[in-house]
């Protein structure tokens, strides 16, 4: 089964979840703690190139709280010296997080580098919890005392590698989370974000969209905590561009680091219905483009691939077709996403963008009738019988139903979910797409044992 951490059977929620960031020196155990907290929820994604997750950002859950967690230690800023790195990481945590977990090595005690971070955290108004790590057994707790004197936050003895003390720590973290925010937008509003490497033209595109004829930009930007959104209306459809603030905020050293832009992109993706994956036609497709688009796919968002700067490419009548073939080849897992060639600069073909956004959003929210779905599945099985395992046991599909939208998610009730392998799942997905369309949206198929 293709598991995806963003997917459950409830309707998607685009209100931002609170963010916990872990900071601390190298080797104190940040990533060990991160992995513990994230636990089983680390995305197990399709085993295909281009769809991998950097383990610096994931979601966690504690009691009733869902939150995002960032391991700032995974965000290296060029080849700056250690102290500089830590300073940036701490600043980044302060900027991005609602709560900061400062991790230290209890066995080593406080070091000069720890003190450096403490100074920065002192100046921030964000709540801090101190995780005194490597306290593998209670006899070590006397080591805690020197950390109490820091005066930056509550001190918790933990052991990342043994999973000790994290419950108390998370209780405290959760108590600092802001109260749930109301979703600021109407259900019918299409939330879109533009993702892509620096300089592909995301800001220019936003401006070009907002500058289009008959686009009415709302006077009051919608704000949710740290994101600044731009709501607008075109042809009676409400849209909001999510998190352009992140794109405007320039000049910081970490803005140009790859993992930071990935983090920014992820935050925007979480809150979007439709993601525009922007590519620079001049430069072609590089690995980072694939990675970023892969996140949107994993997150189950509707996707439009936008090839910008098409004005800057020398073309003949075959260029577009060739470029699209290249995209299809490089982004195989996005075979459902429409590709639009345009220029934010000359505005050529820009008028095709919002209609495409609307179309993929409709697919993302489309429901199909159960009996029609079952007819499609029965026909599919008749044409290409279900597989058997080595022991000759055959997959039997009793019944199929669509359980949710955003993305469309189908549950197949079967004799044994393990018998549904990738290739047959793919076959069924193609049959469902052939019957119903679902252009621009991933669809999820879950096999469940018939009870
Ligand atoms: P990071 O650089 O801060 O992310 O640190 P890591 O999570 O990579 O951990 C650094 C080292 O400390 C690794 O060898 C871990 O196995 C070890 N470590 C992490 N947590 C604990 C712990 O609670 N107890 C002990 N004894 N070792 C730990
Ligand atoms: P962002 O970092 O992705 O937001 O990219 P920007 O919107 O800041 O654009 C980066 C650069 O590309 C700027 O110099 C833009 O003027 C230029 N640019 C953006 N769109 C186009 C386009 O369609 N054609 C050309 N030739 N240049 C563009």
Keywords for this entry:
3 domains; alpha/beta; Rossmann fold; six-stranded mixed beta sheet; 451 residues; binds guanosine-5'-diphosphate; single chain; 32% helix; disordered N terminus; eight-stranded mixed beta sheet; GMP Synthetase, Chain A, domain 3
Which percent band covers the strand fraction?
A: 15-25%
C-alpha Rg (nearest Å): 24 Å
Shape: globular
CATH superfamily of the largest domain: P-loop containing nucleotide triphosphate hydrolases
Average pLDDT level = 85
Furnish the topology, listing elements before pairings.
Layout: E1 19-23, H1 30-38, E2 57-62, E3 65-71, H2 82-96, E4 99-105, H3 112-123, E5 128-133, H4 145-148, E6 154-157, H5 166-176, E7 190-195, H6 202-210, E8 215-217, E9 222-224, E10 227-234, E11 237-241, H7 244-248, H8 258-270, E12 274-280, H9 287-298, E13 302-308, H10 319-330, E14 339-341, H11 353-364, H12 370-383, E15 397-404, E16 409-414, H13 422-436, E17 444-449
Parallel strand pairs: 1-3, 1-4, 4-5, 5-6, 7-11, 7-12, 12-13, 13-14, 16-17
Antiparallel strand pairs: 2-3, 8-10, 9-10, 10-11, 15-16
Helix pairs in contact: 2-3, 8-9, 12-13
This protein binds guanosine-5'-diphosphate (2 copies).
The site of one guanosine-5'-diphosphate has 16 residues, from helix 6.
Describe the structure.
- Strands 7, 8, 9, 10, 11, 12, 13 and 14 form an eight-stranded mixed beta sheet that branches. This protein has a six-stranded mixed beta sheet with strand order 2-3-1-4-5-6, with helices on both faces.
- Residues 1-12 and 40-53 have low confidence and may be disordered.
- Helix 2 (82-96) packs parallel to helix 3 (112-123), helix 8 packs parallel to helix 9 (287-298) and helix 12 (370-383) crosses helix 13.
- The protein has 13 helices and 17 strands.
- The chain has helices at 30-38, 82-96, 112-123, 145-148, 166-176, 202-210, 244-248, 258-270, 287-298, 319-330, 353-364, 370-383, 422-436; strands at 19-23, 57-62, 65-71, 99-105, 128-133, 154-157, 190-195, 215-217, 222-224, 227-234, 237-241, 274-280, 302-308, 339-341, 397-404, 409-414, 444-449.
- One guanosine-5'-diphosphate (GDP) is lined by residues 24, 26-32, 73, 133-134, 136, 159-162.
